[in-house]
Specification:
Elements (H helix, E strand, L loop, with lengths): L1 H16 L4 H13 L9 H4 L7 H8 L1 H10 L5 H9 L20 H16 L10 H11 L6 H22 L2
Length: about 170
C-alpha cells in the first residue's frame, strides 16, 4: 500500500515537472499506483522469497505487467493506464520486459514509473535486505541512467529530490 501510493506521488511530481497536466497527469498517477497490480497472480512464495529467484520464478515475475494490463484494461476508461502498466518494466536499453522496447519507444509515463518505482523499492526494506539511504539510491539511479533508466527522467527525479531536501532543511532551520 505505502509503496504503491509512494510511487503514485513520485510519478505525479515528476510528471508535473515535465509539464504534464490534467488527464495525462491523472493517467500517470493511476498507472504509478497500479503498476504492480499483476503481482496478485504471483505466488507469495515467490514474492517473499529471501534469496535469488530461479528461472521459472523469474518467468512468473516477468508476466505481471501483462496480467496487470489485462486486469486494468477490462475497464475501457483505463486503457491508457493499462498501457503504461504493461511498459513499466521496460528498460531504456531494450533489455526489459515484456516487449523489449527501448528508448523513446517506451511511453514517457512508463519511463517515469520505472525510475520512481526503482527508487521507492531501493529505499524500502525487502525480505532479503534493509532499505538503502536516499543518497545511495540516487547514486544507483544515476549509475543506471542510459541503460536501465531514461537519463532525462533520472535528472529530473534527482533534481526534485534535491529540491525537497533543500526545502526540508530550510523548514528545520526556521
Amino acid at each position: 500500500h505505502d509503496h504503491l501510493h509512494g510511487v503514485g506521488d513520485l510519478v505525479a511530481a515528476v510528471g508535473e515537472r515535465l509539464g504534464l497536466a490534467g488527464g495525462k497527469l491523472d493517467v500517470l498517477r493511476q498507472a504509478g499506483e497500479l503498476h504492480d497490480l499483476g503481482k496478485v497472480a504471483i505466488p507469495d512464495s515467490i514474492l517473499s522469497k529471501p534469496g535469488p529467484l530461479d528461472e521459472e520464478e523469474r518467468g512468473f515475475v516477468r508476466q505481471h505487467p501483462l496480467v496487470g494490463e489485462r486486469i486494468i484494461s477490462a475497464a475501457p476508461a483505463l486503457a491508457q493506464v493499462g498501457k503504461l502498466v504493461r511498459a513499466s518494466h521496460e528498460r531504456f536499453d531494450g533489455s526489459g520486459y515484456p516487449d523489449g522496447r527501448a528508448g523513446e519507444e517506451i511511453p514517457l509515463g512508463a519511463r517515469i514509473i520505472a525510475v520512481c518505482d526503482a527508487y521507492d523499492a531501493m529505499i524500502g526494506p525487502r525480505p532479503y535486505r534493509l532499505g538503502m539511504s536516499e543518497e545511495v539510491a540516487l547514486a544507483e539511479l544515476r549509475r543506471c541512467a542510459g541503460e536501465q533508466f531514461d537519463p532525462v527522467i533520472v535528472d529530473v527525479f534527482c533534481d526534485l529530490r534535491a529540491q525537497g531536501r533543500a526545502e526540508a532543511q530550510r523548514s528545520l532551520s526556521r
